[in-house]
Amino acid sequence: MSRLITTTRSLAFAVSAAVWTLLFAPLIPLLVLLGRPPRIIRQLTRIWARGLLCLLAALAGIRYTERGRVNLPEGPVLIIANHQSAWETFAALVLFPDVAIVTKRELLALPVIGWFLKNSPMIPVDRAQSARALREMLAACRAEVAAGRSVLIFPEGTRKQPGSPIEFKRGVELLYRNLAIPPVIVAHDAGRLWRQGMRLHPGSITVSILPPIPPATDHGVLVAQAQRSLAVEVANLNKA
Length: 240
Hints:
Elements: H1 2-22, H2 27-33, H3 38-60, E1 62-67, E2 78-81, H4 87-95, E3 100-104, H5 113-118, E4 122-125, H6 131-146, E5 151-153, H7 171-179, E6 183-188, E7 194-195, E8 199-200, E9 203-209, H8 219-239
Parallel strand pairs: 1-9, 2-5, 2-6, 3-4, 3-5
Antiparallel strand pairs: 6-9, 7-8
Helix pairs in contact: 1-3, 3-4, 6-7, 7-8
């Protein structure tokens, strides 16, 4: 019976999320006529994300709590977060308003919301991580930081199951070396409740924001420290 309830609630959320997303489709022609105003598009994208969180709580019983908000310094930071599910990709728009998220280019092909993401502060990157893709990512990140926005990266590059080793790809060191903004670790345990194939289980996701990592002249040492800190915090959340 519990599996049937879980499946039913997961399906209800999936259908409702699709309908909610489609409600934004009629706005696209109007926004194009208005010249794609970035501020309005970002606001609408955050409204979309908040709606998903509300649907998730109402239909699947998944809520979230956060701790460590006081650890976020003023001004742009480099947010380094683990990647376990789809939850954090849209929840980040609510947790960190006006953040620019480094995300896989494939998301821009999604119906309706892909258009909003493309015209919001999203930084699409080729998953192959070619030299050209990294240069384009860096240029886009510099522009967002210059505009006063934080940059969020999922350094693992793809979703990992809870308990999997956390291993960073090249992007974190590149961004830290070139952006000159404080790195902040953000850990969560969304994968406990949002599992592969959108299998949703009721409960509360915890988002933990750690203090900024002190500057280091050796970029490799700092990245190794960031990887250890994220791994330890994620492990602690999974034990809780």
